[in-house]
Amino acid sequence: MTGKQIGLPALPLPGREEERDFLPIRDYGLIGDCHGAALVGRDGSIDWCCFERFDAAPTFARLLDRRRGGFLLLRPEAAVPRVRRRYLEGTALLETEFETHSGTVAVIDMMPAAALPDGGIGPAGWVVRLAEGRAGEVAMRVAHRPVHDFQAPPIELARDSHAALAARCPTLHGEVPFSLPEAGTAAVARFTLRAGERRAFLLAPPEAEVADPAATAAAFLQRTHAFWREWVGGIRYHGPYRDTLLRSALMLKLLIYHPTGAMVAAPTTSLPETIGGCRNWDYRYCWPRDASFALYSLQKLGLTAETEGFFRFLVRAAEETLPVIPPLFTIDGQGCGAERILEDLEGYMGSRPVRVGNEAAMQHQLDVYGQLLDLIHLYSSAREDGLSDELRRLGTGLADYVAARWREPDHGIWEPRLTPRRHVHSAIMAWVALDRARRLFGPRADWDEAAVALLDEIRSRGVHPSSGFLTQVMDGRDTDAALLLAPMVGLPIADSTLARTVEAVTAELAEGPLVWRYHSEDGLPGKEGGFLVCSFWLVDALLALGRGEEARARFEALLALGNDLGLYPEEMAVDGTFLGNFPQAFTHLGLVQSALLLDLYEGGGASAIRGTHADRWRRMSARPEGSA
To answer: How many other CB atoms are there within 10 angstroms of residue 211's CB atom?
Structure first.
């Protein structure tokens, strides 16, 4: 993990705290309460925060507009030569230590979380910020500028003793009095912190009573710390990458909406795939295709509640939409609304437009059906109680749809904004759907006939006629990193085809440890960065070919690309610039899966890697207790 310890300039005059440029994406850390989430910059500014739901309108959105977006700042007033950050061990509590010329302070940030008697996690909708003096004395400043919605007028705050409040907006409680410069649209407080002293600031729901901020914050700190330590204590992995996997597991937990079990792809919208470009999407939704990766990884880590919750969410959501399965769901299992463009927002570093909603929800993506049937197959293989009638109905419905529609073009896994085409990865996953249906429910003539035809077409039209690698589309000439998944789903293709596909991806789409998704036309201007989950897929494909040393070297090079907190974005430029929404669940899932497969490879070689997710689960489960 990398992270340059670059200092911070002194703050401008009170009331002018918005005069700050965008931070690099890698400079953010994530806090959350399994309902909503916030991004905390290394300069002590919360620049993104959605309370109670990941897809709620943000209370702070300086991430997407420097002056209109809103923020909650807590940091030293003077220049800060050195900043150090970490998560408190085994927790999601973020500590940022500011070392100034006059002294050192640390800020601990959290969204409180504790197990509730009814099985929930609460309380939702709070942020706690604790400033602690570590050495000397430091002049500090708090600045609070909330927004109600992306495009709403500025909020006018009122002052009530040591609180800053407004209608329809969380109240900021503190141990120091606030002033209201700038016509009341921001609250500011200044105070001095000496070694051994602590000051608490709590952002609370408007109806909450906070008579004693210090005591309330101390109680939240104790309960939240204990909650996360207990949760991490349930993780069973004890392999060589334990610390890295624990951090990824914590990030994935923070991205799960506890009331339904849904995992969002990321807690943000519209962070660009190219700085200044238009490839800016809303990722605060749940993609079913993440499901098999998530279930496989979470099960092996011992996270039974999260596994069961995510699986049940997907089953309920899919049942509601059969026979058609959309590419993504909202966090309560509904269809995604129309995509909106927020014209007036600046966009991160001028990257416009800012989008709310995701038009990809309207696309036809055939691979989703294979992902769901693969998920049901994996789920059933890990249990001894057989398939429920509910799962039989869902699984047969998915297979029937694929058997009837597999010849139709689709938009594919990467959701290009082009007319549909016959994507080879989609054909592979259609074959997976029918193969898993046969394994689960027995043979059926129409399923078997379609599966044979699909496999014949993949082998004849989905392989480059002269170079012998799998192609992006039928009768195509370009490769695609999604095809690296072929050995991970048990597709019966020749080893030579797989080897040539890996070589084509490496030669055409890789630069250093990074792998791009594709280089073909996708209907949008501009380019994107290396796609990190594809980079981990190359690790997995190399293991399936028996190239273990090369795979491990690539994996460890990828680990070094995270930020100083162990967080990873969706994409990355060659120069290390983080791109895309952040942090990205798919990337962390790819990291966890590759780490688990490296351990499996050490015990069983390439043959242990190939096959279905269920095959690998059984092989891992057969290993001695205490191994990875």
So the answer is: 7
Percent of residues in the chain assigned helix, strand, coil, to nearest 5: 35, 20, 45
Is residue 625's pLDDT more than 70?
Answer: no
Residues forming beta bridges with residue 191, ordered by sequence position: 140
- Sign of the dihedral through C-alpha 18, 32, 535, 525: negative
**Residue 369 CB partners (closer than 8 Å, separation 6+):** 325, 398, 399, 401, 402, 429, 430, 433
Burial of 188 (0-12, 13-18, 19+ CB in 10 A): buried
Closest CA to 178 of 151, 136, 146: 146
| Mean pLDDT, residues 161-184 | 89
**pTM (2 d.p.):** 0.96
- β-pair partners for 200: 130
- DSSP secondary-structure letter at 570? S
519-533 confidence digits (pLDDT tens)? 999 999 999 999 999
Residue 374 in contact with residue 434, Cβ under 8 Å?
no
- Give the Cβ contact number of residue 493 at 10 Å: 17
pLDDT over 80 (residue 57): yes
Kindly provide the residue ranges of all beta strands, DSSP E only, lying in 327-422, ordered along the sequence: 340-342, 354-356
Which neighbouring-strand residues pair with 129? 109, 201
Torsion of CA 373, 377, 379, 380, to 10 degrees: 130
Q: Which residues make Cβ contacts (< 8 Å) with residue 240, sequence separation at least 6?
A: 599, 628
213 token code pair:
């901020």
Which residues sit opposite 571 in a β-bridge? 531, 579
